[in-house]
Write a structure and sequence with these properties.
single chain, mainly beta, outer membrane lipoprotein receptor (LolB), chain A, 3 helices, globular
């Protein structure tokens, strides 16, 4: 083979890599979102979560609860056990998500000892008075009919990120999600209405680092501009890859199972 032609071929290939169209990325938007769950959460985790909801400068509620989750390829189960305040102690919720199906939710009321199904057709339904929505808990699991695309790559808060737009048929609002390129952590997300106004936003305020160098959110802030509401979430005692008792993921037993002695 002629060396001159060979060199031209190498240069041509290099130029094709360097000058790829701006809309071409190494990963698709859905692949990035899949990595968010896999890299950030793994197959299971357990943590304590404290929440503080504020209206303006006034604190209107604060809660402390345990959150456990077990994630599969197309399924997810999320268990919440409230510890504080006293009037919420013993309240438990279970959210079960399956790709392509409507999520199912259940609430256990300690005062009555009964478990009730919850209607969650409206994703904005408040969870246990915390101000959190079901979408905040189930994270970024795909619904099966949503469309996601990479808008661009950009640097925010000193971290290189993918900016992803997510939309669903029949819904006018869209979500914008900034995912770090290094560890696939959601650094920021916004819900935007058709007029381009942000109606709900989340951002990571503080990270913690594991022994193997991975970063995870320690503290996050959710803001709801239209309601002058701000929710501070802080995660402690996070353990990943932990065994989750099947009883806390079963609607028939999650309310009364003594998981802390497991």
């Amino acid at each position: 083979m002629n060396l001159t032609n060979a060199w031209k071929g190498i240069v041509t290939c290099f130029a094709a890599l360097v000058f790829l169209p701006s809309g071409v990325f190494a990963l698709t938007a859905q692949e990035i979102l899949d990595k968010v769950g896999k890299e950030s959460l793994g197959e299971s985790f357990r943590l304590t979560l404290s929440t503080k909801t504020m209206k303006g400068s006034k604190t209107v509620s604060s809660h402390r609860l345990w959150l456990m989750s077990k994630l599969g390829k197309d399924t997810g189960a999320f268990f919440l056990d409230f510890e504080e305040p006293e009037e919420s102690k013993g309240l438990r919720l279970l959210l079960k998500v399956t790709l392509g199906k409507e999520p199912k939710a259940f609430m256990y009321l300690p005062a009555t000892g009964k478990t009730l199904p919850l209607a969650i057709d409206d994703p904005s339904v408040d969870i246990g008075g915390t101000g959190l929505m079901t979408e905040d808990i189930q994270g970024f699991m795909p619904s099966g009919d949503e469309k996601s695309e990479i808008v661009k790559e950009e640097k925010i808060d000193g971290r290189e990120c993918y900016l992803i737009r997510v939309s669903r048929p029949g819904e006018k609002d869209q979500r914008l999600i900034w995912v770090t390129k290094k560890n696939f952590v959601v650094l920021r997300s916004e819900t935007v209405n058709p007029e381009g106004k942000v109606t709900r936003a989340l951002r990571v305020i503080e990270f913690f680092q594991t022994d193997d160098g991975k970063e995870f959110p320690r503290e996050e802030e959710i803001t709801i501009p239209g309601k002058d509401t701000r929710i501070i979430l802080r995660q402690e005692q996070a353990v990943f890859g932990v065994e989750i008792p099947e009883e806390v993921l079963d609607p028939a037993t999650f309310g009364t199972f003594k998981w802390k002695g497991f």
